[in-house]
Design a protein that fits this description.
Length: about 675
């Protein structure tokens, strides 16, 4: 009986969601048609895209987080419940898991009775793979250059898999680790634009770095539904100490909530899961282990959300986008009504007089390259100087650090002991260098880049505001039209557009996911995360697979210089290690300078291109609007009266569509 009741509830909720989606879709279609009729091509195109996204019958859930946090392991556990057996060639789940970064690119898992794989290229073409080939060849190589060769043409994988989690129209994305590699990080950021909710995975032993928390804060601020999972490494217990740390670090410090006082973390959708134990429990058919791992509680919450809330989240996202665009349509209608009622001679003369001003507005985007070049040069210089200073500090402190390394040489100095001692010292040197570079990228680089990007945002905001004021002044001169109290002028629409651009180009995930509801300044404020620690380390050639000082190579160098065993071996090993490492560090600023400059240059050039395009298209649409107003004004009185009637009907239609969008949201909320 309980199962029947649950099934009936699900059917009722599905029917209600379909009804709400249909109502909203009709309203957005109507708004797009009105925009087309007003020759607002850019606005119409965006409304049409919004309608398509709204009607998508899938709910996109992304599992994301820093590399090696256990995302793929967790996802394998979540996908373990299948509607029929699947031969995974000995793997415990369809996602590749390794002790090194393994996920090569985005993989979207959707329901299919029989497994299949499609590798989608950047050109939009697909190649069919077998599941066996995917399991063998989809993982990253230990050589970054080989990985680039193998995956440079693959944008993402599409996997069909008989997972119960996906059967109700849910697509789950396994994402490459954020901050592992710039290209793979960007693929993840782009994919967030089509996701409705996210599972953010942290690891308990390296918990909640600043970049990770900035990404989470951006997503929460933009209204994206977040499920936070702390992956319990090394059988770590979720005790009060860990719970209190997570609560204060995330809820209090990042989200502005209260301090830890024993609250239930699930109330904030925070869950502790031992992903490895969960995976073993799922594939070993051990329900008790699954429950003990924390996975069962997470699954229950996700199931409840997907049953009760997913449709409202999906609908709210796209109706909000449509509402913003509808306000722009309504503004243009108001301007055209004013124009149709304006004296023809006066309007014609005013328009002729403002042509030089329109030409000047059209040329304003040409100022942007110089602005971006100035801030790019400042960023390059500041980061290069900062990195050079950090490397100098590393050199100064290296000898003391190596001196403190405990080698534990015994009395019998055999070859094996010498090798072990050399490897211990080499690994300590490697860790010292990696830790310092990580700290530089996470702290100093952020502190330098963040304010620069905010100042750039301020200057661009000034430029956009000036364009908006100039157009408002032209409309006032042309027809006497003014922005209504509480209304949104041109600059308001542009700011929302640029917020999404900022998030997409500079790494602020929140701006990209929610379309920039927090505004341009908010997106730029979180954009310092573009140079995350592992992105910088990857750029500099430092990774678990390709460290800047490879321990094995350094250890071999140490052994080669020692000869036979003798007295003071530990001191000689340490001295030689410091000398070899210092030689590499001494030349590092010169070697890394061009790479750092190129990384910063590429980011600024991409942002410049996107910002320039959005400003230019906005200016073009507004200029076309003014030209159409003048043309309509110059028609005879009967045609002008007819135009006024059509505009009045259009304005009423916009208001009706907005009411319909709100009604659809209310329906979804009630469901």
């Amino acid at each position: 009986m309980a199962q029947h009741t649950s099934s009936t509830l699900a059917e009722m909720m599905q029917q209600g969601a379909e009804r709400a989606t249909g109502e909203a879709g009709v309203a957005i279609d109507g708004l797009a048609a009105l925009a087309r009729g007003l020759e607002m091509k850019e606005t119409a195109s965006r409304l049409e895209t919004t309608a398509l996204q709204l009607r998508s019958d899938t709910f996109n859930l992304m599992v994301m987080g820093r590399f090696k946090n256990g995302k793929s392991t967790l996802l394998n556990a979540l996908l373990g419940g299948t509607t029929q057996p699947v031969d995974l060639a000995g793997h415990q789940g369809p996602m590749i898991v390794d002790d090194l970064p393994a996920t090569a690119t985005l993989t979207g898992v959707r329901y299919a009775d029989e497994p299949y794989i499609k590798a989608w290229s950047f050109e939009g073409k697909s190649e069919s793979w077998s599941l066996d080939r995917y399991l063998r060849e989809s993982t990253l190589d230990i050589d970054e250059q080989e990985s680039e060769r193998r995956f440079r043409h693959i944008r993402e994988f599409e996997m069909g898999f008989p997972a119960r989690l996906c059967k109700a129209g849910v697509i789950v994305y396994d994402s490459p680790g954020l901050d592992e590699h710039p290209t793979r990080t960007k693929v993840t950021q782009e994919a967030t634009q089509r996701c409705d909710a996210a599972v953010l995975v942290y690891r308990s032993d390296v918990l909640m770095g600043q970049n990770e928390l900035m990404n989470a804060s951006d997503l929460v601020r933009e209204g994206t539904r977040i499920f936070t999972v702390v992956n319990l490494f090394h059988s770590r217990a979720a005790d009060d100490r860990l719970k209190g740390f997570v609560w204060n670090r995330y809820v209090r410090d990042q989200l502005g909530g209260p301090a830890w006082a024993g609250q239930e973390l699930a109330s904030r959708d925070i869950y502790f899961v031992d992903a490895e134990r969960a995976r073993r429990g799922v594939y070993g058919n051990d329900p008790e282990l699954v429950e003990a791992s924390g996975l069962a509680e997470l699954e229950r919450r996700l199931g409840d959300f997907l049953l009760r809330d997913r449709h409202h989240v999906h609908l709210k996202r796209y109706t909000t986008q449509a509402t913003h665009l509808a306000q722009s349509v309504d503004q243009h209608i108001g301007q055209r009504v004013k124009a149709a009622r304006t004296d023809q001679t006066r309007l014609r003369e005013a328009y002729a007089g403002m042509l030089p001003t329109l030409s000047a507005i059209r040329s304003r985007p040409a100022k942007l390259p110089a602005l971006f070049a100035r801030y790019r040069a400042e960023a390059e210089a500041a980061l290069t100087t900062s990195l050079t200073g950090r490397i100098a500090a590393m050199r100064d402190g290296l000898a003391d650090h190596v001196e403190g390394v405990e080698v534990k040489l015994g009395k019998m100095l055999g070859v094996l002991q010498q090798k072990k001692a050399a490897a211990t010292i080499a690994e300590a040197v490697q860790q010292y260098i990696t830790d310092h570079l990580s700290a530089w990228a996470d702290a100093e680089a952020q502190d330098l880049l963040g304010p620069l990007l905010k100042h750039l945002a301020d200057d661009i905001e000034v430029e956009i505001a000036a364009i908006g004021r100039e157009f408002d002044a032209l409309h006032l001169e042309l027809t006497g039209w003014e922005v209504a109290p509480g209304g949104k002028p041109l600059v308001g629409t542009t700011e929302r557009v640029l917020a999404a651009v900022a998030g997409f180009a500079l790494g602020g995930l929140g701006g990209a996911v929610a379309g920039g509801a927090a505004g341009w300044r908010g997106a730029a404020g979180g954009a310092g995360g573009a140079l995350g620690a592992a992105v910088v380390l990857g750029m500099l050639g430092v990774s678990p697979a390709a460290p800047i000082v490879i321990p094995a190579v350094l250890a071999a160098s140490l052994l080669g210089s020692m000869g036979a065993a003798g007295l003071n071996l530990e001191k000689r090993l340490k001295r030689r290690a410091v000398e070899d490492a210092d030689t590499g560090l001494r030349d590092l600023p010169v070697q890394l300078g061009p790479q750092l400059t190129e990384r910063v240059r590429a980011g600024f050039e991409e942002l410049e291109s996107l910002v320039t395009h959005e400003i230019t298209t906005t200016i073009e649409e507004e200029e076309n609007n003014i030209r159409s107003m003048v043309e309509d004004n110059q028609r005879d009185q009967d045609e002008r009266d007819q135009a006024l009637t059509r505009l009045s009907e259009a304005k009423t239609s916009v208001a009706g569509h907005l009411v319909q969008l709100q009604k659809a949201l209310t329906t979804a909320q009630q469901v």
